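wait is this the right file?? whatever heres the structure
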């Protein structure tokens, strides 16, 4: 080998050593570094200058191995033998440097140790790869929890998170998994679900829950939200702080949709898709809670009952009936605001919740709006269907319960119906108190009617021309053992509700007939009558006519004395059968009077169609202060009409002589009222019968 050749070779050798992937150091026999290659400086973090003259064992010692480990290596080297092994050293920055070390002694020809070569191969990457493999094996195990589950793996101290391919798939990210941060997940969570999710994570990481499970919504790349279920478990370090948090992610959107469909079906009406009664009650209860906190904003509950729906259903078929209900539902929705609720409570019953009202008048205005909306024709499969509704309105007050609100609205609606009117009625708290009192009175009334019997008082009907008593009206009186006199306006509807009205009615009738026979006999009056009030409900008794005839006959009254006072509500249901009964009554000599005329339908056609003998003009027209205004016109019209039909007009509630003058002026010949006498007990009637009341001032 020539000198030039050997120089070239050693240059090439040095260049090769400089560029190999291993870190190489050369030390003298004392172990002091005399040479390091470039890789060595990269790997250890020391510069060449820092390394020179220092011992590698002291520069790189990590403390990870016991002291005799190094002594062992040295012993081998001194004996001229090479050593190869696994070592964890420390870099200049203190981080650990796992590597394989291979140390070779360079000996002189005489066998003296001249130098030591150490070659170090970094294992960091290899270990990390192994670690990743192990982790991915764990993930694989987790994956077996469900092929459809996404996986996530979060290294907490480093905030390094791995999201699997399927995880990405659930939210529409087209990647085969990626490394990111916890934020990559949390930023997709629906704002309404985020704080709860954070809470659940913290609970588990802080050892307050044994495992983590959360259902929340994640934003898909298409902008929609998917429901997911995340489940996971934390791995903890020696101080039990969570270092790693691993789990699965399942797409539960379909399940949630199915659940919400089920709960929708449970809370909605299938035909109209409107919320049903149970959801309605829930919303009313929430509204009540709100009103308790802030009584300034009120709400109202409306009950709407369709009039004539049964006729549509029976006449045009269920199909048309169904379509009509759907049509009504849609129209109702246009009558309310977005925050309000329209609900179907029963077959043809709807409930409306109106919120954020400033006054009760707003509720009444909404009811009027609904009436108008319903009054327009529904065109259904070639049919022109007209419908109307009765609406009960209950306005909120903080003391109410849900039950009370619903009952109030219901009974307000019932009052519209019972009055035989269409339209709406607003029930106030006072009305509810009245009703509660009614229910307390119920039992006492039952005893009063069934055991003790009610008292009957009589009020004279007087000729406005002669001042003579022409007849009497019998009026029931009931004294509650504790509360005293209860007005008929209160106990009569209660008796109707409790099914006591028939019994009450016949009692009054028998008593009145019996007394009338006596008075006629005593006073030898030929032109005389006694009127008894009957409720519309009494006409539902198929034996009603028989019983009236019986009361008349057993008391020995001749025909033409007993009269019945009816209100127009009897024409609301089953008018045909009612007309037949009225004819039979007329035929046995019972006089029929239409009571409270002017407050109900006041339908002129009723007057023509029914065999009515006389009409009582409602007190409100007679006692109105403006007797020379509209009320007078009405009174005049009613009198003219009844005369034209051959009937008699009777004015109710006559209290002043001025009124008598006006009534006489319009041709009304009979009157009844406090001016002449309040209703009196049977023993005081004889005195009245011989009296002649003044009719002029
Ligand atoms: P109604 O048949 O219209 O009876 C007339 C009502 O007016 C009676 O009230 C009477 O006391 C009252 N009244 C008479 N004159 C005057 C007056 O000048 N001024 C004022 N402010 N009021 C006057 P009452 O006795 O309280 O009866 C109320 C209603 O109860 C009756 O109205 C009637 O519809 C019903 N009612 C009374 N008794 C019976 C009954 O035995 N059966 C049925 N079904 N209803 C009855
Ligand atoms: Mg009457
Ligand atoms: Mg009346």
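ok assuming it is, sequence goes like this
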């Amino acid at each position: 080998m020539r000198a030039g050749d050997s120089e070239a070779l050693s240059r090439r050798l040095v260049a090769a050593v400089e560029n190999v992937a291993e870190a190489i150091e050369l030390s003298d026999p004392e172990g002091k570094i005399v040479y390091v290659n470039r890789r060595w400086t990269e790997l250890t973090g020391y510069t060449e200058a820092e390394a020179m003259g220092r011992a590698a064992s002291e520069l790189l010692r990590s403390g990870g191995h016991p002291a005799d480990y190094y002594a062992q290596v040295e012993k081998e080297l001194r004996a001229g033998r090479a050593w190869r092994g696994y070592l964890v050293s420390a870099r200049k920055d203190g981080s650990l440097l796992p590597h394989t070390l291979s140390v070779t002694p360079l000996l002189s020809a005489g066998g003296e140790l001249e130098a030591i070569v150490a070659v170090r191969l970094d294992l960091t990457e290899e270990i990390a790869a192994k670690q990743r493999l192990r982790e991915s094996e764990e993930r694989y195990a987790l994956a077996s929890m469900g092929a459809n589950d996404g996986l996530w793996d979060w290294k907490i101290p480093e905030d390094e998170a791995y999201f699997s391919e399927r995880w990405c798939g659930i939210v529409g990210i087209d990647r085969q998994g990626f490394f990111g941060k916890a934020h990559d997940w949390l930023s997709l969570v629906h704002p309404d679900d985020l704080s709860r999710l954070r809470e659940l994570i913290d609970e588990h990481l802080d050892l307050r829950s044994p495992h983590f499970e959360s259902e929340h919504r994640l934003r898909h790349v298409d902008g929609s939200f998917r429901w997911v279920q995340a489940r996971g478990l934390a791995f903890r370090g020696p101080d039990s702080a969570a270092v790693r948090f691993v789990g699965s992610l399942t797409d539960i959107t379909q399940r949630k949709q199915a659940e919400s469909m089920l709960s929708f079906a449970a809370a909605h009406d299938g035909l109209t898709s409107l919320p049903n009664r149970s959801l309605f009650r829930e919303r009313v209860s929430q509204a009540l809670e709100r009103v308790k906190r802030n009584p300034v904003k009120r709400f109202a509950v409306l009950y709407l009952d369709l009039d004539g729906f049964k006729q549509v259903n029976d006449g045009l078929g269920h199909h048309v009936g169904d379509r009509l209900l759907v049509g009504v539902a849609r129209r109702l929705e246009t009558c309310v605001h977005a925050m309000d609720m329209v609900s179907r409570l029963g077959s043809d019953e709807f409930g409306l919740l109106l919120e954020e009202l400033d006054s009760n008048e707003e509720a009444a205005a909404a009811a009027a709006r609904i009436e108008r909306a319903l009054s327009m024709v529904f065109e259904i499969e070639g049919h022109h269907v007209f419908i109307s509704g009765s609406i009960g309105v209950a306005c909120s007050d903080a003391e109410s319960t849900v039950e009370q609100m619903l009952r109030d609205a219901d009974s307000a609606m019932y009052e519209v119906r019972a009055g035989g009117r269409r339209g709406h009625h607003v029930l106030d708290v006072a009305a509810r108190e009245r009703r509660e009192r009614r229910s307390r009175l119920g039992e006492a009334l039952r005893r009063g009617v069934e055991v003790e019997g009610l008292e009957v008082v009589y009020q004279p009907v007087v000729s406005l021309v002669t001042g003579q008593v022409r007849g009497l009206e019998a009026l029931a009186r009931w004294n509650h053992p504790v509360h005293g006199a209860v007005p008929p306006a209160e106990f009569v509807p209660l008796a109707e509700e409790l099914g006591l009205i028939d019994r009450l009615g016949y009692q009054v009738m028998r008593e009145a007939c019996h007394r009338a026979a006596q008075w006629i006999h005593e006073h030898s009056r030929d032109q005389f009558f006694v009127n008894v009030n009957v409720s519309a409900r009494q006409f539902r008794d198929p034996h009603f006519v028989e019983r009236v005839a019986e009361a008349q006959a057993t008391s020995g009254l001749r025909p033409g004395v007993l009269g019945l006072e009816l209100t127009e509500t009897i024409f609301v249901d089953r008018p045909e059968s009612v007309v037949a009964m009225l004819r039979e009554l007329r035929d046995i000599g019972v006089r029929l009077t239409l009571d409270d005329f002017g407050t109900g339908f006041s339908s002129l056609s009723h007057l023509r169609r029914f065999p009515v003998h006389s009409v009582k003009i409602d007190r409100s027209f007679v006692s109105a202060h403006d007797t020379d205004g509209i009320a007078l016109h009405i009174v005049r019209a009613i009198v003219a009409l009844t005369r034209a039909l051959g009937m008699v007009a009777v004015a109710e509630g006559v209290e002043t002589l001025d009124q008598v003058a006006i009534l006489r002026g319009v041709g009304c010949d009979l009157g009844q009222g406090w001016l002449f006498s309040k209703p009196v007990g049977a023993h005081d009637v004889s005195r009245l019968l011989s009296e002649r009341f003044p009719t002029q001032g």
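The pocket of C2E (ligand 1) is lined by residues 459, 475-476, 487-489, 492, 505, 508, 533-535, 565, 595-596, 619, 652-655, 672-674, 679 (CB under 6 Å). so i think its the right one actually
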